[in-house]
């Protein structure tokens, strides 16, 4: 079977390629970054150092192909594939829709009856369904019958940590990755026979796993990053070693977790054990994940359906405590990074319009709500402690 993967970054090289090559796929990287494609074609292999507590193993990745997104043969590659995956960032999905449309249209022209399944491995709930909506808006109506019969968009949940860092070898493609890796997909969304993929979990109830991961790991990760940035820590490892930050992160995940327990009737003991396991992963000294990587795109992370605001709204719905989530959201509003366009935009909007307007406009919180008042109070509290002298 043939697989095409868009994105040659950490998740692409350290997770998707590793799994699909091990599963026997003929695998092709596709990227807009000519430098990394040239490097893949030059080296023809790279190593992944898998790490955990008292565990370290180096595995070799090879026998892959790599082409630039504008390669003349790209449409043939897409039309002949059985599986397409992405790990390019949710905001970049729009940039590949036209090429996916043309590849699928070529597949139709060739009268192929081989199903094509597309899995968007992005940090967004139901990212594949989102990609499908974008494509269908521009896909010719006359091809919709074929599209619905042979093109599957499979939502998934991916859970692993692969930090951005300099390669541990001269080969700039090699990277360090967490040994813990989880890939759960929605069984109901595949077209044709579900491919046999190593370590992939097939589920009839994906939403539980998506929310469990997104509103626990991603929530805690983001809050650790934003609190760490305030204290000028460079990595999540440094941040979580700070007892004050660890306490807020752990309790924010518990606050979010109690909403999941209520919503999905999860076992409380098991879910809190899952939270402790996540904290242990954050404390892995071999995974020096940068605060800047986790904190990037703060406006996106403050969206209504995102990792910070969704659990807050659920605590309101179920009348549960949320003081630590409030602290995390307030910390996110303080995030400043001159290299992050969203950070700059957010900072300018706050100066111009104020915190409450931003929370109403970006997070869709009601202007006169208790939640906005609590975040506003916490934001000012952080300002007085950490930033007053800096801006006075």
Describe the protein.
By secondary structure, this protein is α/β, with parallel strands linked by helices. It has two domains: about 1-205, Rossmann fold, CATH 3.40.50.720; about 210-390, N-(1-d-carboxylethyl)-l-norvaline Dehydrogenase, domain 2 (Orthogonal Bundle). The protein has helices at about 10-20, 35-45, 75-80, 95-110, 125-140, 145-150, 205-230, 235-240, 245-265, 270-280, 290-295, 300, 310-315, 325-335, 340-355, 355-360, 370-390; strands at about 1-5, 25-30, 45-50, 55-60, 65-70, 85, 115-120, 150-155, 155-160, 175-180, 180-185, 200-205. Helix 1 (about 10-20) links the parallel strand 1 (about 1-5) and strand 2 (about 25-30).
Q: CA-to-CA gap between the ends? A: 62 Å
Give the strand order, joined by hyphens, for the main sheet. 5-2-1-6-7-8
- The CATH topology of the largest domain is given as Rossmann fold
CATH superfamily membership of the largest domain, which one? NAD(P)-binding Rossmann-like Domain
Can you tell me the number of structural domains? 2
Topology:
Elements: E1 2-6, H1 10-22, E2 26-31, H2 34-43, E3 45-52, E4 55-62, E5 65-68, H3 74-79, E6 83-86, H4 97-109, E7 116-120, H5 127-138, H6 144-150, E8 151-153, E9 156-159, E10 175-178, E11 182-186, E12 200-203, H7 206-230, H8 236-241, H9 243-264, H10 268-282, H11 291-295, H12 298-301, H13 309-317, H14 323-333, H15 341-353, H16 355-361, H17 370-391
Parallel strand pairs: 1-2, 1-6, 2-5, 3-10, 6-7, 7-8, 11-12
Antiparallel strand pairs: 3-4, 9-11
